[in-house]
Amino acid sequence: MIEAIGFFGNMDDGISKPKKFLCSDNIMRVVKFNHPENYTRALLHEFLGYKIAALLELPVLDQKLVNIPRELAEIYSHVEGMTPGIKVGSPLVELDKNIADNGLFREPLPELYRSCSNVGMIQDVLAYDIWIHNDDRGSNMGNLLVLPKKDGSKEFVVHDHGYAFFRPVATMDRYKSLQEFKGASLTWQDHLFPFGPIYEAIKINVDLRNPQLNPFLRVVNKIESVSKQELEQIMNEVPEEWQIPDYEKKVLVSFLFDRRFKVREAIIQLVSMWWFPVWNGGALVWPDLQASSE
Ligand SMILES: Nc1ncnc2c1ncn2[C@@H]1O[C@H](COP(=O)(O)OP(=O)(O)O)[C@@H](O)[C@H]1O
Ligand SMILES: [Mg+2]
User: Fold this and answer.
1) pLDDT tens digit sequence for 115-137
2) Distance from the CA of 64 to the CA of which of 26, 158, 214, 247 falls in 20 to 30 A?
3) What is the residue extent of each domain of the chain?
4) What separation in Å is there between the alpha carbon of 83 and the centre of ligand 2?
5) Ligand 1: which of 10, 12, 13, 21 to mutate, most ligand atoms within 8 Å of CB?
């Protein structure tokens, strides 16, 4: 297990108060905590969000489990949100914050995303968020990060999945929603402008003019062919220390497994309600998608 060895302060943004730590493998990481205290599922959801993004081969920062030793947490016990134990951390990277000298956006968001070398995967973010029921990206620029690369290009990464799976608090409502929400819709899906301004910038970069070139094919194929074993394997890697009961792990596995064929339906519905502006009215074509067996 990677150990945190030195605390380097809080990040500027984030209500969960992510913190910078130098780690035992000499990498500076941004470490997330279950904060505020009742957010006892924040780390679980971060962990699952990362593992699922990796399974779908989405661009995401490499995330590792990081132990905060008790002695270190005690030295900084006055720092809000500091607690010992196993957390999750991603390497501290430079961000393109898209802020001009006058404090305004340097580029409108549609152009910022268009300038990313991996803009061809931008629709995957939507499919992924629908699958895991993540409602924390729609108006939060900090959860779709843009990284400048050495060669002058840029790349987006999905980030911060604590609010997926019906929010990070272990309420009965969350548990019931996980049991009942087998359809892939997000809770405000039927609104004429669902999902919020970040998706407005995403969808303008999704080209549906040639229905034969369905940009959702890759990610939907991945989602639909996920096996129950793969999901169970991820759940088995959840640290014991987080004390997630087995029945909750089971409900999370079924939630994802039951929704996997519904993501395509949700996308078809969005296309048919003319949610994507770069569209010529044709139905998307889904050749040769195959379901895996259980
Ligand atoms: N690994 C990282 N490298 C650089 N900046 C980061 C990293 N992780 C988080 N940040 C910055 O900190 C902000 C808050 O982190 P986030 O994980 O979104 O926390 P919260 O759950 O509190 O919103 C992000 O929006 C981003 O600006
Ligand atoms: Mg965030």
Assistant:
1) 999 999 999 999 999 999 998 99
2) 247
3) 2-272
4) 19
5) 13
